[in-house]
């Protein structure tokens, strides 16, 4: 149903409409606001992969329509772990896009990047992200107090991880902090 691929120039308009959503824009440090900036953002994915071991993908449906973004950043080669981040276009939320993208990017991390552990986290006031992480096989590991800061506000964060030895199935439903 869903798959991931590299971002391309044809995704620029869809990327701009995603970042027009202020909730997404306030969480990102690199927010494209024009078509040229969107094209730079897209071209930057290849640079990040090559220079910083940050591998980003667009999540697409059967019509190859951009539905969201997922990326794995290698945090430590010595310890073989990485960090997973994801977002879904606001028009596509609630359809399993984030879960599918997270699952596919994590498989990439295990199979292609040779990672043993992938971590992710989310604000506690974002229960949808918690559900997506669990459905992608990420086990809850605890809550980190006031970890994230957006503007002047700090947020507690639900932390999750998936090991290469963990099955996707078997993570209990629910939300962190609930």
From TrEMBL:
The protein's matches in Pfam families, at most eight in alphabetical order, are given as: Acetyltransf_3 (PF13302)
| Record InterPro entries | Acyl_CoA_acyltransferase, GNAT_dom, Ribosomal_N-acetyltransferase
Domain N-acetyltransferase, by residue range, is 2-164
Q: What is this protein called?
A: RimJ/RimL family protein N-acetyltransferase
Instruction: Show the PROSITE patterns listed in the entry.
Output: GNAT
